[in-house]
């Protein structure tokens, strides 16, 4: 049996989503009949992408003994003009924080997530052009 989530309609455009690991609300923007009481479906897709690649990278860096103090992943998606509006371009910005960052290992971890491990990334590739950038914010060594 595959993975399953359940959603329950709660009126207007609001749904409750019961997922593997927790639940949350999904809602439309007010201009589309929602009340803004939950996350937007397309934004969830970008969030899934960031979560998937982020978990890969943190796990890989731990195995490589190249841990970082922090990682931010900013994802920007550009939609098509026509309906159904889908992401045509996606940009991921990885920002690594720490001191004495092992940049070669960080870049290898990002590449492995991008090209081999992140299933969400591969799904996005079916319909969007993906670009990535890595930035470093080095803290001074004590």
TrEMBL record:
Checking InterPro entries in the record gives:
KH_dom-like_a/b (IPR015946), OsmC/Ohr_fam (IPR003718), OsmC/Ohrsf (IPR036102)
The family database entries (Pfam families) matched by this protein are listed as: OsmC (PF02566)
What's the superkingdom here?
A: Bacteria
Quote the PANTHER family the UniProt record gives. Answer: PROTEIN YHFA (PTHR34352:SF1)
Q: What is the designated name of this protein? A: OsmC family protein
* Naturally occurring in which organism (per UniProt): Lutimonas vermicola
């Amino acid at each position: 049996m595959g993975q399953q989530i359940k959603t329950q309609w709660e009126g207007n455009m609001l749904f409750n989503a019961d997922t593997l690991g927790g639940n949350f609300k999904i809602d439309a923007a007010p201009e589309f009949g929602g009340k803004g009481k939950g996350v937007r479906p397309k934004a969830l897709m970008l969030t899934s992408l960031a979560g998937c690649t982020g978990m890969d990278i943190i796990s890989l860096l731990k195995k490589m003994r190249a841990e970082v103090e922090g990682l931010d992943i900013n994802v920007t998606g550009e939609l098509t003009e026509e309906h159904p509006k889908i992401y045509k371009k996606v940009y991921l910005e990885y920002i690594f924080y720490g001191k004495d960052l092992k940049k070669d290992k960080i870049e290898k971890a990002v590449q492995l997530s991008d090209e081999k491990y992140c299933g969400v990334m591969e799904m996005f590739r079916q319909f969007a052009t993906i670009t990535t950038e890595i930035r470093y914010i080095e803290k001074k060594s004590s």
